[in-house]
Amino acid sequence: MEHDFKNGIEKIIDQIECPKDFSCYKQGFENLCKAQDVGLASHLVCREEHPPECHFSWDVGSAFYCTCPVRVHIARKLSK
After folding, report:
1. CA distance 53 to 49
2. I need a labelling partner for 47 at 20 to 30 A (CA). Which of 13, 30, 53, 62 fits?
3. What is the pLDDT of residues 46-79, one digit of tens each?
4. Are 45 and 35 in contact (CB under 8 A)?
């Protein structure tokens, strides 16, 4: 894993709490939630089957958005 990418993730982790204990990071990004980068600065479109169950999902009426900074960083840097 690229050093700058890892440092970026670790800085984010130090600043937030995750109800899933950062399992996406700890499992090597193998079990990521379904999300799509649509070019918004700090959000992704949530593609999970049950978005309201996620602590980081944000309902805007027509769609749900992922606001997890770790997930956004992964999407932007790893295109996952």
Report:
1. 9
2. 13
3. 999 999 999 999 999 889 999 999 999 999 888 8
4. yes
Contacts of 28 (CB under 8 A, 6+ apart): none
Interatomic CA distance for residues 50 and 52, integer angstroms: 6
- Report phi then psi at 49, rounded to 5: -65, -35
Phi and psi angles of residue 57, each rounded to the nearest 5 degrees, phi first: -85, 145
**What is the C-alpha to C-alpha distance for residues 73 and 59, in angstroms, rounded to an integer?**
20
Q: What is the C-alpha radius of gyration for the chain, rounded to an integer number of angstroms?
A: 12
Categorise residue 54: left if φ over 0, alpha if ψ from -120 to 50, beta otherwise. Answer: beta
